[in-house]
Every structure is written in structure tokens, then in C-alpha cells.
Inverse folding.
């Protein structure tokens, strides 16, 4: 983290040879932007299911749905990131991801507008997240990848789904 | 082996004499002491001599190396531990039976057989300490069988202590099996000396410790604490230890069956017995003892299979899913539209089979309360001796079956309550004599089925709860302002507040005020309730009402706008459609309902959860009278949709626990329904300004 912020503040993109960010990513769309998460984090991709809203949860938690007998929460990343939400359409789907939290792995669904493809992103294509100045903080990004002239925002899904939930998790007493 | 002596008469004496000299020369006090001891009993039998020799030899060699069997065949050792635990439990049961009725020959035989089996197995696996202890007790029981000694007070104490000791001996073995650091096995010397004391015919001792001198064994215990051997020091502990482990066991991920220390872990499945019309004589022969376990401690378990509890839990889970999937198929609109009679028949046949499978799977997890009650009997016995109170147990319904997990979770609360009864409830014998109560107090432990619930009653005929005392204490602690207008039930419920105790003095049994709040919380976790009935001077009775199983609840599905929620039926007291004037507001804010003269607070679920209802007019909606935190309140919902048994699931770690929601369940149409937690639904509205 320190290295990254240092690099970012120097405004010198330092693509490292052994960049551990390189690898296979699943690219998907959120609104007009294209994001990518590590393929290893993806459990499955399914169409939109009937989602049951859970009262008194933040609005970005759409609710819970039934994944073959398991109850899985669904997070709307657009709401979480503060974009205008797009209506569900035929291409909307739920990406079920494995999120590590406190030593345990849990399943969560993220609602995405469309899944594009699995891309192999080389270390040379990855740049550190540019510094947008004080007003813009992008804590969930691992970096930015440029492939075939397209920009993919590499999402750190663990922290994207967690930062706000961490205190929630730690405050969880029962069940 | 050391060169054995000529066992006939003088050769033995001579050998011992030589040994004693040698030992003294080498400064081995233990060996020399034993040798002297044995020299003093020239009439010792052949069997005794062999035993003595083994022990002498061990004393010479120091501690024996860990047996090879442990490393070679862990499977055998695991079986040995399981089996021994079962026997030890039977032993405890039989001994308590014998204590009540010393002429109970069958129990003596049973205990003898149990120790004998343990001895045999331990010998085979080379666990010499276990073998030796078992052997000594066996000898003791043999004498009892032949009416050479009487099984009373201190003798029973010793046998029970031996059973506890063997249990402790099993612990390190188990730990080693699991690859955990093994604790040091307890030293058997002290115990063996006690057994031998009785064997040698200190017949006077057990007589002296006969019933009227209840405190006698306590004195010995206290003395023993000063000796370097930890055994007696720990004597009261095993019960508590076993309990706490049993409760924790489900959390342990690996090999659950092996960790749970008491036999409730392997659930005994008795599938064939009931149904198969048995032509084979073998099956018929086993039927009799199986139904009569209290009388026949060994045997009777031949027609059952031991199953890893993890597998069983998984099976029950999967069957739950099967039931839901089956119901999804049955209600699938496309299939229903086919209107194909043969398909419908097949589907309903599938439904029946699924139901049957579910029932069977659930019943496999059911265990009788017997083992739990057994622990309580032992606890009462030990505590009554410690407190110097004469207590008689009144037990009923120990064959009542319920979910294994619940039985385990009930152990702690029951123990607290029994302790409280003995320590606070029951008076000392002098106090009892001052009133016209019989000198022997009664502790009642009853269990019975009641409409999908188990009612467990723990009662005593002691001094009862003093309303004034409780109120005074509550005022002192600032729990109530005045409290004079509280109902008896409300007052008694104060004892469940954390840190509340009216006992004048803190004893080591109870009185620190931890306990009853834990009891309450634990019972609530099991979705149960506690009720107290107490009459000053006559006694107190606690009634626990717990569901038969934790995995499934009966729920009413209610609708609020587009949403559907599941209300656990156990929380519902009544449902009604309000008439004009039922609801009114207080100070324009809080809402109350007047129902048959009772004023109840009102919670509108749509407001509580912020959903859009079908109608805001209470007359178009439904009122559910439910209980939360011991008080009734009205829950306003749109309508009743149906009733369903649901498998409770957690909403997952990704969502913070929502007050008012206990979890989720898959409904008949495949959607997730949220299960309401009445305490949470109610408290956010009203609980904040409650006195407590």
C-alpha cells in the first residue's frame, strides 16, 4: 500500500515486472464503466433472481436470494459507489464471488449490468490508480489495465465488499 | 517382568522381604511402603498377589511408557474410548440406583460387567493404569455381589470416583488421538489406596459413614486435597467439566464424535427394531434390554449403529433441502397446468416419501433426555453431600426425546437451576425441622411432550421465593422504581437480571448472581421460555419450554405489501382482525390496542421495516398478539398467507444482523422469506424505555 501511494504521488507509473496484479480477470460493466475482478474470486454467474429485500440495511444491499438452498446477500456496487443505478435488463446478472473476511470465506452476489469476458491482463498493461486529487478517493481499485485500447478498472473485491462491512462483521455477536 | 517368586506362602513372604530391603537401600519409598503393606497380609489370594506384583513392578520402574497401541491402531483406541465412556455412564447410573436400593442385584451385576469390559479392553490395548483401577473396582464389586461388603455411602463414593478417574484417564488418550498436546494422566495411587482400604476389610469405615453422617465423606475429601495427588481435589469437577465440553462440542470442526466426551455424541439409531417383524431370535432377544436401559446397563445396544454426528447433521440439512425442492416441484405452475393425473399422483407420492424421510432423519437426531437427567442426578447427589442436605430426586419423563443439539444446550441451564434449588431453595435440615416439612427434601425433574415442545420442570419443596426480598434487592440495584404493583410473575422474573442474587451468603455452589441470567439467555437462544411458579415456604418450580428441534420451525407466513415474512408460531398467542376503536394513540405518538380489557402496545410492521403496506387502515389488516421479553404486544401486518415448516438459515456474514430478523428461509416458491425475531421487532420500538 505504501509503495503504491508513494508511486501515485510521484505520478510516475511504475509497472513492476513481477506485478502480482497480473492474471486472469472477469470483465463486467457497471453503468458505463468497465470493471474487472480476479477470476479466482468468481464462484459463478447467474441471471437475476428474485431478491428479498432486508429492512434496515444500507441501500446498496439489495437483499438476499436463494442459491440452491443457500441464502446469499446481493450487493449493488453502483449504489455503493454512488452512481445512478441502471434498470435491470436482459443482460443484468449476479456474479457470485468468494470474499475473504476474518479468516472465513463467504459468498456474496454482486449485481452487474453485463458480463463481458475473461481477459488475460499482463503486468505491463497494469498501471497504478492515478491520483485524482484530494476529492476523489478510490480505495477499491487495485489499478487500471489497458487492453486493446480499452480501460478496465481492476476492482479489489474483498475491500469493495468489506470496508463498510468490517465493523459490522466484528460487531456481530450471534449467528 | 521381574523374576516371579514362588507364589506359595513363604516364598512370597521372602520375596517381599527381599524386595523391601532392596527398595529401602535404593531409597524407593513407594516400593518399600507397598512391600510392607503386602507383607502384612499373608492370607492374600493368588489373584491379589499377581496384581500386587504388577504394581510393585511398576513402582520399581517408575511410570510406564505410553502404550504402543495408541500409535499403532488409533481406530481401536477411539472405539475403546467411546465404549468406555458409555460403560462409565452406565456405571454412574447403576451406582446411583444401587445407592437408593442396595439390594438392586441387577445393577451391581451391570456395574461389575461394565468394569470388567473396560478392564478387558484396557488390558488388550495395554492401558495398564485403567486396567488396574478397573480391576480393583471389579474386586470390590465382586465382594459386594457376594455380600461380603455393603454398597453404601463411602463405597459408592469410591466407585463413582473410580468412574470419574477412568474418565480422566481417557482424556489424555483422546487428546493424543487428535494430535493435541495431552495433559498428564491423573495419578491413580490415592484412589487405589482408597479402594484397597475397603477391600482389606475396613468394614467399619463404610458403616460409620452411613446415612445419618452425611458430612463424613466431605471430611475425607477435604483432607485429601492436602495430599500431592490431585484426584480428590478434582472430584466435584468432572460433572461440570463434561458439561462445558458437551456444550462446546458442536463448534469443534474436526471429528465431532471423538471430541464430545459423553456418549450422547454418537446418536444411536434404532431403525430395525420397531418395524421389521423379527423372525430371527437374535433380534427378539435384544428387544428386552433395549427398552429397559436403566435396569440393564450393559447390552441392549447391539441393534444400533453409531453415526458421526457431522454426517447426521449434514443429512438433516440435505433432507431439509429435499423437502423444499419437492415442494417447488409440486407448486411449479407449468407442471400444475399440465393437469396430468398420473404425474400428480407421482408427485404426491414423492411428497409422502419425502415427508417420511424427513421425519426419520429428524428422529435420528433425537436422543432421550436420560443422559442429561443422569448428570443431574449425580450433581444432586454430590451437592447434597457437600451442602449437608438430604435430598430425594423425583424424576419423570427421562425417556422423552429431543434434538441432540438442544439436549446439549440444556445441560448448563439445567445445572444452574438444580444448583440454585439445592443451595437457595432447600433449607438446611434444622430449618426444615422447624417447619413441619419432612427432613428429606425433594428435587423434582420432570420432562414431557406438549404440542411440539418439551416441558422440563425443575422444582424443589424448599423455602420458595420471597417476593419482598427480591423487590428489596431489585430496588437496591435500581432495577425497579417501586415495584409494588408488579405481578408475582414480573417480580420473579427479576431474578433473571444479570448479577441478581438474593442469597445472603455466597457459597461455592452458587450465590454469586451469575447463572440465572445465563439460564434465561440460553433458553431464549433455543427459542424457549421459562416460567416460574413459587410459593413462599412451599417451594419453587421452574418450567422450561423448549422446541423439539432447532433446525426447523413452524412459521406463519404473513404479507406486508409486496414482502412476506415468517412469524415463528411459538411466539404467537392470538390473531384477530381489529374492529373500529381497537387501536388508539397515546400522546399522538405511541399506539396501543385495547383487546378484551387489556391494553397492549402496537407495532406496525410496515412502519418498523419501512415497506409500503397494502393498506394503512388497521381494519383492513391483521393483528397478531405475540410475546416478546415476557410481555404481549400487537403486531400489525397486512394479511395471513399460509403456514409452513421452514429450515432456518443465517442471512450470511455479508449482512449486519438486523434487529427483528432472526434469519431467512426458503419459501415454497423458492424465494427467500425473512423470519421475524419478535424480541427484536418489539424492542426497537418500546424496549428502550423499559425499566430493565
Amino acid at each position: 500500500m505504501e509503495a503504491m501511494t508513494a508511486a501515485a504521488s510521484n505520478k510516475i507509473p511504475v509497472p513492476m515486472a513481477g506485478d502480482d496484479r497480473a492474471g486472469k480477470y472477469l470483465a463486467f460493466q457497471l453503468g458505463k464503466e468497465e470493471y474487472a475482478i480476479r477470476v479466482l474470486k468468481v464462484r459463478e454467474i447467474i441471471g437475476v433472481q428474485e431478491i428479498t429485500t432486508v429492512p434496515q440495511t444500507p441501500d446498496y444491499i439489495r437483499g438476499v436470494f436463494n442459491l440452491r438452498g443457500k441464502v446469499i446477500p446481493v450487493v449493488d456496487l453502483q449504489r455503493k459507489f454512488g452512481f445512478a443505478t441502471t434498470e435491470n435488463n436482459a443482460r443484468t446478472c449476479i456474479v457470485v464471488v468468494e470474499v475473504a473476511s476474518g479468516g472465513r470465506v463467504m459468498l456474496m452476489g454482486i449485481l452487474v449490468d453485463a458480463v463481458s469476458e475473461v481477459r488475460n491482463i499482463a503486468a505491463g498493461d497494469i498501471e497504478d490508480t492515478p491520483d485524482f486529487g484530494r476529492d476523489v478517493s478510490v480505495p477499491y481499485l487495485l489499478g487500471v489495465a489497458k487492453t486493446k485500447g480499452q480501460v478496465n478498472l481492476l476492482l479489489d473485491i474483498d475491500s469493495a465488499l468489506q470496508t463498510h462491512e468490517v465493523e459490522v462483521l466484528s460487531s456481530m455477536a450471534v449467528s | 517382568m521381574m523374576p516371579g517368586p514362588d507364589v506359595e506362602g513363604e516364598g512370597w513372604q521372602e520375596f517381599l522381604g527381599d524386595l523391601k530391603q532392596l527398595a529401602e537401600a535404593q531409597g524407593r519409598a513407594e516400593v518399600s511402603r507397598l512391600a510392607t503393606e503386602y507383607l502384612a497380609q499373608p492370607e492374600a489370594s493368588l489373584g491379589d498377589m499377581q496384581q500386587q506384583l504388577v504394581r510393585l513392578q511398576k513402582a520399581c520402574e517408575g511410570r510406564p511408557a505410553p502404550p504402543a497401541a495408541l500409535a499403532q491402531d488409533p481406530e481401536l483406541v477411539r472405539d475403546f474410548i467411546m465404549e468406555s465412556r458409555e460403560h462409565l455412564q452406565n456405571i454412574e447410573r447403576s451406582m446411583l440406583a444401587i445407592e437408593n436400593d442396595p439390594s438392586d442385584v441387577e445393577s451391581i451385576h451391570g456395574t461389575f460387567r461394565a468394569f470388567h469390559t473396560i478392564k478387558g479392553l484396557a488390558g488388550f490395548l495395554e492401558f495398564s493404569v485403567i486396567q488396574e483401577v478397573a480391576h480393583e473396582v471389579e474386586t470390590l464389586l465382586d465382594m459386594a455381589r457376594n455380600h461380603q461388603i455393603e454398597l453404601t455411602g463411602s463405597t459408592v463414593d469410591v466407585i463413582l470416583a473410580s468412574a470419574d478417574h477412568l474418565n480422566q484417564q481417557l482424556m489424555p488418550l483422546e487428546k493424543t488421538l487428535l494430535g493435541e498436546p495431552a495433559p498428564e494422566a491423573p495419578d491413580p495411587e490415592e484412589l487405589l489406596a482408597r479402594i484397597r482400604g475397603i477391600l482389606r476389610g475396613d468394614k467399619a469405615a463404610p458403616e460409620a459413614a452411613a446415612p445419618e453422617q452425611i458430612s463424613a465423606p466431605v471430611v475425607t475429601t477435604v483432607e485429601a486435597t492436602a495430599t500431592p495427588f490431585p484426584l480428590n481435589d478434582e472430584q466435584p469437577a468432572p460433572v461440570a467439566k463434561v458439561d462445558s465440553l458437551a456444550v462446546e462440542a458442536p463448534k469443534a470442526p474436526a471429528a465431532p464424535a471423538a471430541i464430545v466426551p459423553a456418549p450422547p455424541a454418537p446418536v444411536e439409531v434404532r431403525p430395525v427394531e420397531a418395524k421389521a417383524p423379527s423372525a430371527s431370535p437374535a433380534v427378539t432377544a435384544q428387544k428386552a434390554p433395549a427398552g429397559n436401559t436403566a435396569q440393564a446397563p450393559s447390552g441392549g445396544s447391539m441393534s444400533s449403529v453409531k453415526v458421526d454426528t457431522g454426517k447426521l447433521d449434514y443429512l438433516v440439512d440435505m433432507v431439509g433441502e429435499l423437502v423444499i425442492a419437492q415442494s417447488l416441484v409440486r407448486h411449479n405452475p407449468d407442471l400444475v397446468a399440465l393437469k396430468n393425473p398420473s404425474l400428480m399422483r407421482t408427485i404426491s407420492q414423492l411428497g409422502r416419501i419425502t415427508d417420511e424421510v424427513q421425519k426419520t432423519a429428524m428422529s435420528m437426531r433425537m436422543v432421550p433426555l436420560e443422559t442429561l437427567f443422569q448428570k443431574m442426578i449425580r450433581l444432586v447427589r454430590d451437592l447434597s453431600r457437600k451442602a449437608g442436605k438430604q435430598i430425594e430426586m423425583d424424576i419423570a419423563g427421562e425417556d422423552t426425546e429431543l434434538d441432540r443439539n438442544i439436549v446439549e444446550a440444556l445441560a448448563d441451564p439445567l445445572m444452574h437451576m438444580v444448583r440454585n434449588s439445592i443451595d437457595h431453595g432447600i433449607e438446611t435440615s434444622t430449618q426444615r425441622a422447624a417447619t413441619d416439612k419432612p427432613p428429606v427434601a425433594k428435587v423434582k425433574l420432570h420432562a414431557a411432550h406438549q404440542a411440539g415442545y418439551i416441558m422440563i420442570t425443575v422444582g424443589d419443596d424448599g423455602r420458595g421465593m420471597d417476593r419482598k426480598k427480591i423487590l428489596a434487592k431489585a430496588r437496591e440495584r435500581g432495577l425497579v422504581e417501586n415495584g409494588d404493583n408488579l405481578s408475582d410473575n414480573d417480580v420473579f422474573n427479576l431474578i433473571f437480571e444479570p448479577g441478581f442474587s438474593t442469597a445472603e451468603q455466597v457459597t461455592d455452589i452458587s450465590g454469586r448472581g451469575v447463572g440465572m441470567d445465563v439460564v434465561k439467555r440460553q433458553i431464549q437462544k433455543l427459542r424457549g421460555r421459562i416460567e416460574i411458579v413459587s410459593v413462599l415456604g412451599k417451594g419453587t418450580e421452574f418450567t422450561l419450554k423448549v422446541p423439539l428441534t432447532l433446525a426447523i420451525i413452524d412459521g406463519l407466513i404473513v404479507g406486508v405489501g409486496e414482502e412476506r415474512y415468517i412469524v415463528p408460531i411459538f411466539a404467537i398467542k392470538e390473531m384477530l382482525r381489529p374492529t373500529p376503536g381497537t387501536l388508539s394513540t397515546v400522546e399522538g405518538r405511541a399506539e396501543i390496542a385495547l383487546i378484551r380489557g387489556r391494553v397492549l402496545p402496537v407495532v406496525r410492521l410496515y412502519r418498523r421495516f419501512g415497506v409500503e403496506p397494502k393498506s394503512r387502515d388497521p381494519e383492513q389488516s391483521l393483528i397478531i398478539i405475540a410475546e416478546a421479553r415476557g410481555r404481549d404486544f400487537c403486531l400489525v401486518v397486512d394479511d395471513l398467507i399460509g403456514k409452513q415448516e421452514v429450515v432456518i438459515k443465517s442471512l450470511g456474514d455479508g449482512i449486519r444482523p438486523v434487529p427483528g430478523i432472526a434469519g431467512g428461509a426458503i419459501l415454497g416458491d423458492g424465494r427467500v422469506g425473512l423470519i421475524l425475531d419478535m424480541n427484536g421487532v418489539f424492542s426497537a420500538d418500546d424496549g428502550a424505555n423499559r425499566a430493565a
Chain A is about 15% helix and 45% strand. The interface with chain B takes residues 50, 52-57, 61, 63-66, 68-73, 75, 99, 101, 104, 106-108, 161, 165, 168-169, 171-175 of chain A (CB under 8 Å). The two ends of chain A are 33 Å apart (CA to CA). The mean pLDDT of chain A is 77.
